[in-house]
Amino acid sequence: MSTATERREQLKEVFREASGCVRCPLSETRTTVVFGAGNADADLMFVGEAPGANEDRTGLPFVGQAGRLLEQLLGEIGLVREEVFIANVLKCRPPGNRDPRPSEIETCRGYLHRQLELIQPRVICTLGNFSTKLLRGDPTGISRVHGQPEVRVIGPRAVRLFPIYHPSAALYTRSMLDTLRADFARLPELLALEPPPQPAAVEPIPAVAPEPLVEEPADLLEEAAEDAARNGETEAPVASEDQLGLF
After folding, report:
1. What count of Cα atoms within 13 Å lies in the side-chain half-sphere of residue 86?
2. Fewest C-beta atoms under 10 Å: which of 64, 173, 194, 232?
3. What is the distance between the alpha carbons of residues 158 and 151, in angstroms, rounded to a whole number?
Protein backbone atom coordinates (compact mmCIF):
# COMPACT_ATOMS: atom_id res chain seq x y z
CA MET A 1 0.00 0.00 0.00
CA SER A 2 1.34 3.44 -0.93
CA THR A 3 2.23 5.92 1.80
CA ALA A 4 0.58 9.34 2.00
CA THR A 5 3.72 10.94 0.59
CA GLU A 6 3.81 8.50 -2.33
CA ARG A 7 0.13 9.15 -3.07
CA ARG A 8 0.72 12.91 -3.07
CA GLU A 9 3.53 12.53 -5.59
CA GLN A 10 1.35 10.32 -7.76
CA LEU A 11 -1.44 12.88 -7.57
CA LYS A 12 0.98 15.54 -8.77
CA GLU A 13 1.80 13.31 -11.74
CA VAL A 14 -1.90 12.97 -12.56
CA PHE A 15 -2.25 16.76 -12.30
CA ARG A 16 0.63 17.29 -14.73
CA GLU A 17 -0.86 14.75 -17.14
CA ALA A 18 -4.31 16.35 -16.97
CA SER A 19 -2.85 19.84 -17.44
CA GLY A 20 -1.65 18.89 -20.91
CA CYS A 21 -4.53 16.62 -21.85
CA VAL A 22 -5.71 16.73 -25.48
CA ARG A 23 -7.84 13.59 -25.44
CA CYS A 24 -11.10 15.29 -26.38
CA PRO A 25 -12.21 18.41 -28.29
CA LEU A 26 -12.64 20.40 -25.06
CA SER A 27 -8.86 20.85 -25.10
CA GLU A 28 -9.36 23.13 -28.12
CA THR A 29 -11.81 25.49 -26.40
CA ARG A 30 -10.64 25.58 -22.76
CA THR A 31 -8.39 28.24 -21.27
CA THR A 32 -6.95 25.97 -18.60
CA VAL A 33 -7.58 22.60 -16.99
CA VAL A 34 -9.42 22.71 -13.67
CA PHE A 35 -7.99 19.60 -12.03
CA GLY A 36 -9.30 20.18 -8.52
CA ALA A 37 -7.90 21.58 -5.30
CA GLY A 38 -7.54 20.70 -1.66
CA ASN A 39 -6.06 18.22 0.76
CA ALA A 40 -4.53 15.19 -0.92
CA ASP A 41 -5.45 13.13 2.19
CA ALA A 42 -8.97 14.53 2.54
CA ASP A 43 -11.62 12.42 4.23
CA LEU A 44 -14.27 14.50 2.45
CA MET A 45 -14.38 15.12 -1.29
CA PHE A 46 -16.86 17.22 -3.28
CA VAL A 47 -17.59 16.47 -6.95
CA GLY A 48 -19.40 18.94 -9.18
CA GLU A 49 -20.24 18.81 -12.87
CA ALA A 50 -17.76 20.91 -14.83
CA PRO A 51 -15.83 24.20 -14.59
CA GLY A 52 -17.57 27.49 -15.29
CA ALA A 53 -16.24 30.49 -17.20
CA ASN A 54 -14.13 32.01 -14.44
CA GLU A 55 -12.95 28.63 -13.20
CA ASP A 56 -11.74 28.07 -16.74
CA ARG A 57 -9.73 31.29 -16.46
CA THR A 58 -8.37 30.68 -12.95
CA GLY A 59 -7.85 26.92 -12.97
CA LEU A 60 -9.48 26.56 -9.53
CA PRO A 61 -12.88 25.04 -8.69
CA PHE A 62 -15.63 26.96 -6.88
CA VAL A 63 -13.99 30.39 -6.77
CA GLY A 64 -17.10 32.59 -6.68
CA GLN A 65 -20.32 32.97 -4.68
CA ALA A 66 -21.07 29.25 -4.65
CA GLY A 67 -17.55 28.58 -3.40
CA ARG A 68 -17.88 31.13 -0.63
CA LEU A 69 -21.15 29.56 0.49
CA LEU A 70 -19.50 26.17 0.43
CA GLU A 71 -16.74 27.50 2.67
CA GLN A 72 -19.32 29.03 5.02
CA LEU A 73 -21.20 25.74 5.34
CA LEU A 74 -17.95 23.88 5.96
CA GLY A 75 -17.13 26.35 8.71
CA GLU A 76 -20.46 25.65 10.37
CA ILE A 77 -19.44 22.02 10.83
CA GLY A 78 -15.90 22.83 11.94
CA LEU A 79 -14.05 22.37 8.65
CA VAL A 80 -12.17 24.65 6.28
CA ARG A 81 -11.71 24.40 2.53
CA GLU A 82 -8.07 23.33 2.89
CA GLU A 83 -9.18 20.16 4.71
CA VAL A 84 -11.33 18.83 1.86
CA PHE A 85 -10.78 18.17 -1.84
CA ILE A 86 -13.00 19.74 -4.51
CA ALA A 87 -13.15 18.49 -8.10
CA ASN A 88 -15.50 18.16 -11.06
CA VAL A 89 -16.52 15.30 -13.31
CA LEU A 90 -15.00 17.16 -16.27
CA LYS A 91 -11.68 18.95 -15.94
CA CYS A 92 -12.35 21.33 -18.86
CA ARG A 93 -15.23 23.75 -19.36
CA PRO A 94 -17.80 22.77 -21.99
CA PRO A 95 -18.44 25.74 -24.32
CA GLY A 96 -21.34 27.85 -23.11
CA ASN A 97 -21.61 25.71 -19.97
CA ARG A 98 -23.59 23.11 -21.88
CA ASP A 99 -24.05 19.66 -20.33
CA PRO A 100 -21.09 17.31 -20.64
CA ARG A 101 -21.37 14.85 -23.51
CA PRO A 102 -21.08 11.10 -22.93
CA SER A 103 -17.87 10.92 -24.95
CA GLU A 104 -16.33 13.70 -22.83
CA ILE A 105 -17.31 11.96 -19.60
CA GLU A 106 -15.87 8.68 -20.82
CA THR A 107 -12.62 10.34 -21.87
CA CYS A 108 -12.25 12.31 -18.63
CA ARG A 109 -13.46 9.82 -16.02
CA GLY A 110 -10.03 8.25 -15.59
CA TYR A 111 -8.78 11.44 -13.94
CA LEU A 112 -11.61 11.42 -11.40
CA HIS A 113 -11.07 7.73 -10.70
CA ARG A 114 -7.36 8.34 -10.11
CA GLN A 115 -8.22 11.18 -7.74
CA LEU A 116 -10.51 8.88 -5.76
CA GLU A 117 -7.89 6.14 -5.72
CA LEU A 118 -5.09 8.40 -4.50
CA ILE A 119 -6.99 10.71 -2.14
CA GLN A 120 -9.02 7.85 -0.61
CA PRO A 121 -11.88 9.96 0.83
CA ARG A 122 -14.29 8.47 3.35
CA VAL A 123 -17.24 10.47 2.00
CA ILE A 124 -17.93 11.92 -1.46
CA CYS A 125 -20.55 14.66 -1.76
CA THR A 126 -22.00 15.00 -5.23
CA LEU A 127 -22.88 18.65 -5.78
CA GLY A 128 -26.08 19.02 -7.74
CA ASN A 129 -28.27 17.16 -10.13
CA PHE A 130 -25.84 16.20 -12.87
CA SER A 131 -22.96 14.80 -10.82
CA THR A 132 -25.44 12.97 -8.57
CA LYS A 133 -27.08 11.20 -11.50
CA LEU A 134 -23.72 10.42 -13.05
CA LEU A 135 -21.96 8.97 -10.02
CA ARG A 136 -25.05 7.10 -8.83
CA GLY A 137 -25.60 5.69 -12.32
CA ASP A 138 -29.29 6.45 -11.94
CA PRO A 139 -31.63 9.12 -13.40
CA THR A 140 -33.33 9.95 -10.08
CA GLY A 141 -33.19 13.69 -9.48
CA ILE A 142 -31.38 15.41 -6.63
CA SER A 143 -34.62 16.46 -4.91
CA ARG A 144 -35.40 12.80 -4.18
CA VAL A 145 -31.99 11.58 -3.06
CA HIS A 146 -30.31 14.55 -1.38
CA GLY A 147 -29.18 13.88 2.16
CA GLN A 148 -29.37 10.08 1.72
CA PRO A 149 -25.96 8.41 2.07
CA GLU A 150 -25.24 5.14 0.28
CA VAL A 151 -22.25 3.00 -0.59
CA ARG A 152 -21.36 2.91 -4.28
CA VAL A 153 -18.44 1.55 -6.25
CA ILE A 154 -16.89 4.28 -8.41
CA GLY A 155 -13.89 3.32 -10.48
CA PRO A 156 -11.48 1.39 -8.26
CA ARG A 157 -13.09 2.16 -4.88
CA ALA A 158 -16.22 1.65 -2.82
CA VAL A 159 -17.17 5.01 -1.34
CA ARG A 160 -19.88 6.48 0.86
CA LEU A 161 -21.76 8.75 -1.53
CA PHE A 162 -23.77 11.66 -0.10
CA PRO A 163 -25.77 13.70 -2.66
CA ILE A 164 -26.48 17.35 -1.77
CA TYR A 165 -27.83 20.36 -3.62
CA HIS A 166 -25.34 22.51 -5.46
CA PRO A 167 -24.52 25.59 -3.34
CA SER A 168 -25.47 27.86 -6.24
CA ALA A 169 -29.11 26.78 -5.91
CA ALA A 170 -29.15 28.01 -2.32
CA LEU A 171 -27.94 31.45 -3.36
CA TYR A 172 -31.40 32.23 -4.69
CA THR A 173 -33.78 30.21 -2.52
CA ARG A 174 -33.81 30.44 1.29
CA SER A 175 -35.66 27.15 1.73
CA MET A 176 -32.98 25.38 -0.29
CA LEU A 177 -30.29 26.96 1.87
CA ASP A 178 -32.00 25.54 4.95
CA THR A 179 -32.09 22.11 3.29
CA LEU A 180 -28.46 22.34 2.26
CA ARG A 181 -27.45 23.39 5.77
CA ALA A 182 -29.37 20.43 7.26
CA ASP A 183 -27.63 18.03 4.88
CA PHE A 184 -24.23 19.50 5.74
CA ALA A 185 -24.97 18.98 9.41
CA ARG A 186 -24.97 15.21 8.78
CA LEU A 187 -21.43 15.17 7.44
CA PRO A 188 -19.60 14.85 10.79
CA GLU A 189 -21.45 11.64 11.65
CA LEU A 190 -20.75 10.22 8.18
CA LEU A 191 -17.06 11.10 8.42
CA ALA A 192 -16.90 9.34 11.80
CA LEU A 193 -17.99 6.03 10.25
CA GLU A 194 -15.46 3.43 9.17
CA PRO A 195 -14.73 3.46 5.42
CA PRO A 196 -16.90 1.02 3.47
CA PRO A 197 -15.34 -2.37 2.62
CA GLN A 198 -13.86 -2.80 -0.82
CA PRO A 199 -15.83 -5.80 -2.18
CA ALA A 200 -14.20 -7.13 -5.34
CA ALA A 201 -17.46 -8.81 -6.34
CA VAL A 202 -19.37 -5.54 -6.68
CA GLU A 203 -19.35 -4.14 -10.20
CA PRO A 204 -18.64 -0.42 -10.70
CA ILE A 205 -21.53 1.81 -11.72
CA PRO A 206 -21.81 2.82 -15.39
CA ALA A 207 -19.61 5.70 -16.52
CA VAL A 208 -22.58 7.54 -18.00
CA ALA A 209 -25.94 7.72 -16.24
CA PRO A 210 -29.11 6.87 -18.13
CA GLU A 211 -30.99 9.75 -19.72
CA PRO A 212 -32.98 11.65 -17.09
CA LEU A 213 -36.68 11.00 -16.71
CA VAL A 214 -39.19 13.73 -15.86
CA GLU A 215 -37.47 16.43 -13.83
CA GLU A 216 -39.00 17.72 -10.63
CA PRO A 217 -39.35 21.51 -10.22
CA ALA A 218 -36.67 21.58 -7.52
CA ASP A 219 -34.25 19.80 -9.84
CA LEU A 220 -34.89 22.26 -12.66
CA LEU A 221 -34.45 25.22 -10.31
CA GLU A 222 -31.21 23.75 -9.05
CA GLU A 223 -29.85 23.26 -12.57
CA ALA A 224 -30.76 26.82 -13.60
CA ALA A 225 -29.11 28.25 -10.49
CA GLU A 226 -25.99 26.20 -11.08
CA ASP A 227 -25.73 27.44 -14.67
CA ALA A 228 -26.19 31.06 -13.56
CA ALA A 229 -23.53 30.78 -10.88
CA ARG A 230 -21.03 29.13 -13.21
CA ASN A 231 -21.45 32.04 -15.62
CA GLY A 232 -20.96 34.65 -12.91
CA GLU A 233 -18.03 33.47 -10.82
CA THR A 234 -15.51 36.05 -9.64
CA GLU A 235 -11.87 35.88 -10.57
CA ALA A 236 -9.15 34.22 -8.50
CA PRO A 237 -5.45 33.47 -9.07
CA VAL A 238 -4.61 30.98 -11.80
CA ALA A 239 -3.87 27.54 -10.38
CA SER A 240 -0.41 26.09 -10.18
CA GLU A 241 0.80 22.84 -8.67
CA ASP A 242 1.59 24.62 -5.40
CA GLN A 243 -1.91 26.09 -5.20
CA LEU A 244 -3.71 22.77 -5.52
CA GLY A 245 -3.77 22.20 -1.78
CA LEU A 246 -1.83 20.22 0.74
CA PHE A 247 0.10 18.02 -1.65
Report:
1. 27
2. 194
3. 7
